[in-house]
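User: Modeling request: complex.
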Amino acid sequence: MYQISLINKLLSQYKLWTLKLHNASMAIENNILQKDTSDKLEEKILSIGIASLFVWIVMGIIGLFGVATGGFIIGVILFGIGWLLSKLVNKIVFGTPRKIENISDNEKLLLSTLKKVEQTHISIRDTINKGSIIINFTNYVALKKEFDSILNDLDNFKASHLALKYRYKHKIIASKYKIEVDKFHKIYAHK
Amino acid sequence: MKNLTQKLKSLKNATQSQYDEVIIKYSKTEVLKELKKAGITKEELSDDEFDELLEDKIKQSKSFSKGAMVAGGALLFLEFLG
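Assistant: Request completed. Predicted assembly structure:
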């Protein structure tokens, strides 16, 4: 009786885990493709800040030479230059979305492996839901190997070409993926 | 996600809390849909487990929808600047 209730509990946890695996995979994909737009407001405020700072600094430097400053047209021109400069800074810090066809072959391979592994577990989940209990929690060694390979790829992933925001987020997101892999071992192999 | 983006874009002069309300409602529906697809009922989950899934979904939705909120008007004055 205890064994049956334990299996049922693990099966339920496994099905729930597949959703968490999906979220963790998607976070990696979105980070590589630089899809996050949640800092849109911060981006624009930074742009205004940089442009204003640029006006102040250049006006200040011109003022040091005793030239009259404060003209409206000069101010607008300087603000425009500062605004363009800020666009460059924004691109370095926040980046722009990357199209899948423009990413490197290694990145494409990593994303397709993540999708493949996710699909494998969705298939197992579907089989569980169909009631084919006999195949539950089998093939652990092969599934573990797939996760070991992905974790290795994530560890070795060079994020230096990504915008700063995504570069620093990569490690956090990869560690979240690892947490899900650890959960997989606990559920699937009951470790 | 397209539905949410369209909905947010259609909201004119909405407040931040109104945008949040739409995002939370959308995220809840999506989580319930995903649970159903996975063969799990909400009753099988603890409140913490459900909240964790919901939190992830809200984060994902917000990550994609801020741009739509800008277009929708919440941050329109900034959008004019580029």
